[in-house]
Amino acid sequence: MTFRPTLDHPARLPSVLRTAVLAAGLLISASLHAAEFGADVQGLLDHARAQNPELALMRAEAEAAGQRVQPAGALPDPLLRVELMNVNNYGNDAGFNLLPSKVGETRYTLMQMLPWPGKLELRRGVAEADVRQAQARTQAAWTELAMRIKTAYARYYLAAGNERLTREILDLMKRVEQIAQARYAGGLVVQQDAIRAQLEQTTMRAELIMLDSEKRQQRARLNALLARPADAPLAEPQALRPLPPPGALDPAALTARVRAANPQLMAEEARLASAERSRELTRRNRYPDFSVGLQPTQMGSRITSWGVMFEVNIPLQQGTRRAQEAEAEAMVAAARARSQNLVNQLSGELGETVAMLDAARQSEALATNQTLPQSELSLRSAIAAYENGRLEFTALLEAQRQIRKARQEQLKAQAEARVRLAEIERIVGEPL
Asked: What are the pLDDT digits (tens) for 259-308?
């Protein structure tokens, strides 16, 4: 059957057009979104927080640890014991039987075990400390992943920036070659000037191959961190994050923030709290646990008597308990030493990284405010002088190399500063 919208189905045409326009709009929107993904580091971080499988695993482990808190502080299930006495009915005419009403006597015992006061609270405290430790480990995994993403993004920005710079210098060398060719045609310079300009361009094209490889490597690294296929598209990095003001990098203030927010340190503090509660629980094992019970006795179809019971374990194995207490004490000492060692380690890393960030900031400022303007002025003067025959081609090449080096140093300092900032944020445990 042929569909003729203009003749047979005039009313259907608007809906068909609306569907086509909507589909085209969705396709264009998806393409734009794919092209923009990766242009800034915050979008990458948001994606990683939602999609990274390692984080999902650790969040699930923390959730599982949270579910252990309530059982740790709960009483054990009660016990019911049923004893059938004289099942062969000795002394009467009935034979063997297992029905409670058909035996000589049936005794029921309902028992509840009761730990020594305080033990349940300590067990719950141990479980809660384990939850805090699992949550802190999850946060530590996120700060580590965020640092790696920020670092890879800075390296990606550096590779892309060097590629753009090399293409700009390549275009410049094409212009220089044209000047050299024109001057050679006029008999003003030797042909070697044009050949050297061509050789310089060939060298830059070889560098572009290496820079493209570096870009693809950084793109694959970023995609791996984002749990995406290695060849998934990523937009060109547009800009780096702004650096915090120098006042925000005071070592004393940052050290205080490390003590308050570093997730690794929080995990060690939770480990110490768990060890201390375990030590107290081990000490409480010097005291007995006990059970209480109720015992109704059935004869025939009637309950004929009632009894109560009390049961207690006797902690006689003191050698075993002293060894357990010594072990718990050693675990507390180890947790405390581990926490202090981590504080010292983080403080050292923080001071070193802040110094490196400060050096990168100064290098960027020097390149931006002095080296780069001077190199640009030198290059413009060199091109003008060479066009007028007042400068050798070697000096022009040197001026080109100087401005390229200055811009490379600027890009390198910018990327290095962001790498160090990412490391500081990992140590502190939160963005600055």
From this structure: 888 999 999 999 999 999 999 999 988 888 889 999 999 888 888 899 99
Side chain identity at 206, as an amino acid letter?
A
* Distance (Å, whole) CA 37 – CA 234: 6
Q: Which residues contact 220 (CB under 8 A, 6 or more apart)?
A: 230, 231
Contact between residue 233 and residue 34 where contact means Cβ atoms under 8 Å apart:
yes
| Amino acid of residue 413 | A
**Cβ–Cβ contacts within 10 Å for residue 107, how many?**
16
DSSP 77: P
Question: How many Å apart are CA 15 and CA 3, to the nearest integer?
Answer: 14
What does each C-alpha distance from 355 to 239, 277, 320, 345, 360 come to in angstroms?
24, 40, 53, 16, 9
Sequence spans of domains, the chain: 38-75+115-428
- Write out the two tokens for 195: 């050949």
Helix, strand or coil for residue 234? coil
CA-to-CA distance for 337 and 268, rounded, in angstroms?
A: 10
- Can you read off the two tokens belonging to residue 211? 């820079």
> The domain 38-75+115-428: what is its CATH number?
1.20.1600.10
What is the reported pTM? Answer: 0.79
